[in-house]
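3.2 Worked example (two chains)
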Amino acid sequence: MLLDITSIAAGGDGVARHDGLVVFVPRTAPGDRVRARVQAKGRFGRGTLLRVEQAGPGRVAPVCPHYLRDRCGGCQLQHLTLEAQRAAKAQVVRDALGRIGHRDVPLPPVHRAGEPWRYRRKLTLAARRTADGWRAGLHRAGAPDEIFALDDCLIAETGVVAGLQRVLAQAASLLPHVSSLRLAMRREGDDLLLVIEGGAHWPEAKAFAAAATEVAATWWVNDEGRRRLILDRRAHRDAGASFVQVNAEVAAALASHVERVVRRHAPRTVVDGYAGTGDVAASLAAQGVVVTAIELDADASAVCAARLATPSAAVHARVEDVLPTLLPADVVLLNPPRTGVHERVTAALAESDPTPRAVVYVSCDPATLARDVARLRGWRVESLECFDMFPQTAHVETVCELVPEGL
């Protein structure tokens, strides 16, 4: 089928329309005319790119050999210029807010910051045990059960990639005796930190950590989700296994913007939901704002608590469990995971008396952001700005400032 690609959908697929059929074709660009094999189901179709008959203005040759040769699923937009990537992300955010969130918003700016390559300080590999030993790599696009051996990842720091490869060379035989694992390596300062996920028992854990000499600290997350610190060689210990943004430079720019948006409302009290280790909470508290920082991860919450002086405080809990007891507040800051906030969170905000002056919502998924905004009836989008935290991929970070209607 001959298709004209008009836009990029959430997730990075190109979109074409043909005789009433909406077709999603991976690795295509707006303005492309492509030949594709299409499987249709109802009004929608999934296309497999056969060849590009005419390239759109934003198409470029992908730099990473894994992108085309191995159909790597880690990146979705390497075939677009950075300008075209950011234009696509802005449109995805706007479309989601309109279609799901029922808010008519202008195209948001997408701030560029940092480097488009080698920006990730964390890399996660899928590992499969084979007859010849462990095979570790990344998933193929559209085939989550398939992995390919990784030579390099051009969006990850070279030290992180090399660190993972050396660990596998040093100590792969000491990994848990299971068929599959996840290995996540992250740089924190000068240290490499490793989290291994999978397995019910790991009697060789300490021997593995001792053999992996490049790693400063090793954690194991078993099949029940329980995390255990195996070995820590660091001089300074923190919440190293907790979530952090993988792009440190853009994360700093985003945090500064979030703080400016919060400060615009001159708050005396702020509730910081999903606070992590408390970077924004600590900065606001240092300026005289009374901050209550909610975080479920125990290690991160402990670090946050140590950074806050009374009357500010950290609360180790789920946001939906404690937010109703912590309102009212002048401003509520939300920075949830990709799944968005629980419906009890938006219900608590709607029922708060008095109503917060603003909700500042930091999102890594436009669809769940839009869903949660739709739940906040009576609130309008005051500002919407995006940050290109993950160049070459379809992911985008969005800061949505919401204020009550009538203000």
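3.2.1 Second chain
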Amino acid sequence: MLEDYLNAKEWQKIKNFADKHETPFLVVDLEKIKKKYSLLQKNFPFAKQYYAVKANPGDEVISLLKDLGSNFDIASIYELDKVLALGVDPAKVSYGNTIKKADHVKYAYNKGIRLFATDSESDLRNIAVVAPGSRVFFRILTESSDTADWPLSRKFGCHPDMIIDLVILASKLGLEPYGISFHVGSQQHDIGAWDSAISKVKYIFDWLSEHENINLKMINMGGGFPANYRAKTNSIDVYAREITRYLHEDFGDTLPEIILEPGRSMVGESGVLVSEVVLISRKARTALVRWVYTDVGKFSGLIETLDESIKYPVYCEKKGETEEVILAGPTCDSQDIMYENTTYKFPLNLAIGDRLYWLTTGAYTSSYSAIEFNGFPPLKTYFIK
């Protein structure tokens, strides 16, 4: 099982480091991030990468990607301050959150940001007032809830007809309507979801060019590329081949500027979250399933196990006959159960104090970790090369 996620050299590097530290903690292998960046560059040579800082905002991650030439997608002025403090050029930053205070738009503008996402009239008017002349891209709604492990529809984006109205308004307000964005959902298994979204973008591009003489220049395809969890997915080269074909089918040989916002696919596989078994119990004399409580849970980095959406591979070094378990966290909150319906099996000789290694946890763990719920400190994160 372990070899499906880490080769022997990678595992030994993680293990040697982990053995010297007290659980729980996340250890991130920066070399794996470097390889992922290069892999995306190889498969999408025509696209600009805007790393989604929210996935893992570690200074070491941002600095590495900056040195590799990455751009950055930020969701708040706090992420903006972080990347600027690390020497990122504001020209390489996109404010990709459509939900933002006018004061925050102004702050970003004053720091040099000129590329903003929007999906509503009120936000657009705020941008026009406090960030005059900026480039704006418009997020469309996508339907991807059935095929993405972590859907991102409904809250963000709007119907293509409303997008057209917003583009026209942006032009009248003195902004530069620059492009269209979409997000097909995080950990998207259906590559066809990009085909549907790109077709909508093409319709908007053509309508605006024909009826309003507005020529958009960019497509922001967001994220959605998968990390290696328990469920099988296609490799990134298959995603790239198909998505590139969709783009050329709709836009021909001359593509607009293409932006990608990798987050999970960039850093997910770089992380191993190391935990310890705190308690093992059964709820009845005849219970067939053991409860295994660990020193990490939903509030210490594993919130994406909500509704058992993201199914992390969990490795135990002990061998022998196995039995199904329920995995739960250490807090006094009944919601702090990671997996009750998804089958996880561990050896019958699993004991208190044994370590469990949560693989592919480099994304959305440290950034989701609670500050002081039940008094537990935030998840410690270490970076190794």
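3.3 Remarks
The longest strand covers residues 271-281.
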